[in-house]
Amino acid sequence: MRFTKQLLITKLKATAIHISLSLVVFIYLAYKIYYDWYPQPYFTVDGGWQGIRLVAAVDLVLGPLITFLIFDLRKSRKEIVFDLMTIATIQLGALAYGIYATHSQRPVAIVVIDDYMVPVTMEQYGGSLSSENVLQQYSDETPPIIYAHLERTPAAFAKAKRIKEEQSISESAQIYLYQPHSSLKHALQERQELHHKFLVAEKSTDKFDNWLRQNEKTSEEVLIVQFAGRYGTAWLVFDLEGKYLSYF
Predict the structure, then answer these.
(1) What are the strands, taking DSSP E only, across 87-221?
(2) Domain count, the chain
(3) Which of 114, 159, 213, 227 is deepest in the core (most CB within 10 A)?
(4) Helix, strand or coil, per DSSP, at residue 183
């Protein structure tokens, strides 16, 4: 079939309709990713932005592009229905994968272990966690912020390493190490000197000073800890009782 101006107009109209419908789905998914699955600062430094881009590529680019390439009203009704079913199958399949990948890699816990604060996904629990709701007993935050106490002894390190090797459960996801929320403030207090050195070494003192001014706080009134995300770092700020306040 010859490509004509009328065919181009038809394709563009069909593509525009497809984009409009896809945009509704994308807005909903973007809201879920930004506010529920990867609330800040995790959206920026721990995969939320990558998830948004993956969903956008599938929902706003792949599907409409396929529509533009194969949609043609000059085809028979049977051929048009088949084309639309093909487009829907490809897009829904790819979108399902994108949603699954983004959702499964979201942090379900933020864990302070050793001298670091790291994200933990469900996959890292290696099947030892029946539901992520179990983690709410350690913290009221979303995702919960938990202190994992790993004793600095050869025996403790050996046990954690053995569990990791035999059960594929990373140290930060070994629940027997998790402590009550009341222990978090002591863990943060013990790490303040170290993290303030990190702050200076990474030339982030200006950001901290700006946060203090904006929130009318002094450095003596808060506790800070560096969060090591998969795509960057951020600083989480707590009050002296270990209650999470904000980030910078």
Answers:
(1) 109-113, 116-120, 145-148
(2) 2
(3) 227
(4) helix
Residues 29, 30, 31, CA angle at the centre, nearest 5°? Answer: 90
- Check if the beta carbon of residue 235 is closer than 8 Å to that of residue 226: yes
Pick the last residue of a domain from 68, 85, 104: 104
- CB contact at 8 A, 196 and 224: yes
Q: Which residue has the tokens 């959206």?
A: 43
Report the distance separating Cα 90 and Cα 241, nearest Å.
51
pLDDT digit string, tens, across residues 38-74: 999 999 999 999 999 999 999 999 999 999 999 988 8
pTM of full prediction above 0.85: yes
Q: Dmax of the chain from CA atoms? A: 76
52: Cα within 13 Å, side-chain hemisphere = 20
Pair 82, 29 in one domain? yes
Residue 70, classed as helix, strand or coil, is helix
**In 3D, which of 100, 141, 139, 145 has the Cα closest to residue 118?**
145
